[in-house]
Amino acid sequence: MRRTTKAVGTKSAADTDNDEREPYIGTNYDKTRKIYLKDVMAERHEFVLKYSETFLRFVKRRKMISRSEDLSLFLVFLECFAFVVIPAISMIACRTSKVSIVLTWFVLTRVFYFQRFMLALHYHSHRKIFPRGIIGRIANAVPTLIIAPMFGIPSGIYWFHHCAMHHVHGNRKGMDLSSTENYQRDSFNAFVKYWLRFALFAPIELPINIRKYRGLKDGFMCFMCSLVTFSFYLYLRWNVSRVCANWILAYPYILATLALMFGNWSQHVFVCPLNPRNDFKSTYTCINSFENQKTFDDGYHVQHHLDSRLHWTKFAVNFCTKQSLEKHAKEDALVFDGLHFFDVGLCVMLGRFSYLAERLVVLDAQKKKRTKEEIIKELRRRCEPVQF
To answer: Treating both helix axes as pointing N-terminal to C-terminal, what angle do 188-214 and 216-235 enclose, rounded to 10 degrees?
Structure first.
């Protein structure tokens, strides 16, 4: 699938040698390489299977989804239900005790669907994809209540953590439990502490946080989400199969907390210590990464924090407008070319700031042009704990 919306670029006449569909964005630090935005017209890879146009038209015509733009999310959920949920239910029903069977399911579903589902769930949490009504309410609950636990997310908990806490408090320490501000963000030991705190104490701390800022009802519901999932795990372990319980619920939780926390750590690894509440300076943008085509353009994290209700199909188009690029330049926002968040996070952990400097995009509107050494110094500065 390709986007049908064309972006309005800022490419000059001197750049007409490049494909007109790819807006000119800027250069690297020494101006030896021009950078164009390939994400605008890139082929999408959010779902795995290929579908006939007849089936896709049928889904749209029967109004199974609220917006035609959410077709990709629908297909991801459909595939996850078919290839993740149904096999898991079958293994539970058969009381499977062979590790090889459950391990095969675990590996294949993580490889093909973990990343895709997490980002589909993410955008579904912001804007439900199924129409209103009884059937729509049931369908909207399936991803977060039934599919999510098999990817390591306690049933119903994602909305509370991401929408009710993270986006409300915006990485602010003391309010956002997943805040990275207190940590030295190029330290592996600091990340391990960050991850372990979330993995071990989030089921307790999150309901308390929700109770504090949203009231007793939401706090109780948040607590019950974790309690029900944990209770179901114990039921499976004691009454069905310890192998099923571990590989379908426990091990996915460990992997999910590690992956999601490293993802959030990476997204908010560069935080300006002097202005950490500025969305342009508390995260950054990743362009021209193949991962964007699998993750609903997740690399446009600044855009997402500026407007969490903005549909993902508009991220790249909005980013490359003249007004947006000038705003990014004015705010000294970081933009990386050809990298995604995990790439950036790993580079930071390994101390490869020189490589990150080479991938940093220098926008034309930026008044202050930094040398490679100055870029490295600025990146290291933004990894320091926030004293604010």
So the answer is: 120
